[in-house]
Amino acid sequence: MSTGTALSDSRESALVVSLIGGSHFVNHMYLMLLPPAFALLGPAFSASTAQLGLAVGVLGGVVTLFQLPFGYVSDTYSRTLVLAISLGFGAVGAALAAAAQSYEWLLLSMVVLGIGVAGHHPAHYPILAAATDESRRGRAYSVHGFTGVLGLAAPFALVPLVLSLGGGWREAFLAIAAFGGLYAVVCLGAFWRYVSSDVTHPPKTKSSGSTPNFANELRTLLTTPLILLLTILWFVNSLAAWGIRTYSQTLLSSGYGFASADASLASSAMLAIGAGFILLGGWLSDRALAEYVLYAGYGALTLLAAVLASSMVPVLLALGFVLLLESTIDVSRPARAKLTDRASARKDVGKNFALMTIGISAGGAIGPPVFGYVIDIAGVDVAFYLIAGLAALAVGLTAAVRAASSPHGTTTLTASD
Prior knowledge:
It contains 17 helices and no strands. By secondary structure, it is an all-alpha fold.
């Protein structure tokens, strides 16, 4: 992208962090488009909970499929091209969901939406890394995560609001699509006019001597132990997170007797509280070992999920614990991002974060239908015991990451590399 108006480095950095934060908000609204409307979509399409979980899984599956191709384009040609594809396809997919006339149509809209959502991490992280100094990058990632979690929370609040105003799920979905489309125009226009090519494009564009070999680069990534461990950690984290985000409402309504609307609002509040913990996590990640932040977050999740699954706590205390569930994961998000950034050379940031997002989106593809099936056959308590087990596994993976990144393990690459 060309730039029409020069900005100082600090002003450009602040603008980029704000614009990418807004894009994260929009993309995460798309990610959580369906779950708040499950109770309405089931009767509308004669679909079971498992089928609706599958629709969310289709979205996650498409996101997984497109991660490395978008990461390749971002690292080789243009980061803002990937950003434009992400915002454009996302708005179209949400609009198609609003207009869906059948379950099959809904699935198709999730495919289009998935192509859009797939581009946001491969574009966002390299742009943020290029626009921010390494000493402040943890806080930049925390702002990014903060806006993303607000985006996850927004549909849980928007759907009940639209219903209270006399609308339905179609109007709610359409409002999200319209907001996303308008933001795409504003965001991309600002990038075009105000952001330098050093941020919008990779350090070296397509070489005149040779063309990068995607298969060779993928093979190199997959044979790097630290990157593989981080990818697995992000996958396990994502499985637990999608179990919490998709079925905390079910836990409160089925397990603790909350009304459906109250449980939905509680889920929205849970995600909003988690957003605040992302900011705390960014501050901690810039001042302490990132691994310690992960230990604290995953350890707390193990305890809270197991206690909630036991159904032995009073209703009000259970509500308080649910409100903190997302926070245990969100406080660790900047630390995971910083560990991945440190394990990357500048030319590999997009592809490495694409691999991490494969872990995230694979969790989004597998988690909702698997947890839904577990709930159907064994109950919501068993599902949350499973979440506790995943959190405990994440503690072990964090220890493995620390060992692999030690001087005696795999050498990590800092931002200066």
